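Consider a typical record:
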Amino acid sequence: MSASRRVGIIDTTLRDAPQCLWATRMTAAMMLPVAQTMDQAGFNRMDLAAAIQFDVCVRYLKENPWEKFRLLREKIVHTPLQATVRGRSLVSFDILPNDIIELWVERLVANGFRVVCAMDGLNDVDNLAVSLKLAKSLGVTTEASLAYSHSPVHTDQHYADAAAEIVRTIGVDVVKIRDAGGLLTPDRVRTLVPALKAVLGTTRLALHSHCLTGLAPLVYLEGIKLGVDEVATSIAPLANGPAQPATQTFVRNARALGFEAGVDLDLAERVGEHFRRIAEQEGLPLGVPAEYDEFHFTHQVPGGMLTNLKFQLEQAGLGERFDAVLEECARVREELGWPIMITPFSQLVGTQAVLNVVRGDRYTVVPNEVKKYALGHYGKLLAPVHPDVLDRIVSNGSSAIRAEPSVLDPAVPALRRQYPGRSDDERLLRFMFAGNQVDDMLAAGPLPTQYEFESRSQQLLKLALAMKKARHVRIACEDMRLEAYRATG
């Protein structure tokens, strides 16, 4: 290893960090004011879009995602923007026709993305190939993400074999270890990275982890010592916790080890302060370092799903069953052949676990997605489903689900006939989102592009109005003086 070797930074501040910490509720108006500053900071690339960003933009933020990304591309002119395609399912759980996936990739590139990454929860290379081969033909950088998991079947040999097949059959620019569960340890990195480097040749190796167990910052440092070329970080305070390691801390530590990371930390701090002010005004959480949790290696439920699962159980009056559900998640996962706990398989395992715990009699109710998974509709399983469990799944699951997946007919020609005079961008959104969701998004009008920070007086007034039990409130600042008494009696 050369002590002066450069390590590239994949910035996740606008994509994975708010996905982990703010439920993906980061608007265009929050992003755009710092987009140019981020463009100047020296990142190798900026991770901006995956399936959940499209979903939240359409359904909750009422922002046209394509317009949002075009506006950001106008501000970010030097740093390549990255979009991630989820195997052959995109934003749905089901496998989609190949021509829909290909049109999706074409529109990503047309809208300014210069890096296309594909990931698949089964690490099925056939599922990755559809989008990556087209992206490669369009001349953009291609990245294959190998989803990391901790199980008897997710061995170093499994990852080396998958990486070798990807390099041989697709020929990507980057292979990434994608550790959504924050499960990598320094010890495992010491065997996994050399196994991958041995088969990658000149293909770059990247590392993307989360701080759920508190180990990711150490994992990154060990990884770059062993030859990892790029790491995914987020600008603090949108870092740590369920998100990625902090850019500022990683860069300082890497430089202390003799590496060059090429990031301007003064610019990063300016961006961090912008998001800190937004979090304070909106009441949004900031990332803090997590304590080590050994139980996390048992259930492996991702951070965002943990929060949602606990909330849903409490809403149903079942909050006291939370630990039992996590234990059941671990049992279901083993019985299903060790699926990696990322979308859609984490939801699939979690839903089945809840049903098993609540009903008491396991697998008497089987969601359609569980049966489809068990029968191979989503791709090749890494390990067989336990035979007795498979029998119950087949017997109790929907009889409408075929024993073997069918070949899907092309869907783009019919989609264009269904929506004449519309752009392919809009057609794809209408294909993905049912009902009036796209209409409601379009009706919201142009995207706001400037975030309005409250003045000090506005903040104090809001605070005073929230103090419902106070009998006497006095507020004084440079542009306002207010004193109020609550009537009694």
Notes: The longest strand covers residues 141-147. The radius of gyration is 24 Å.
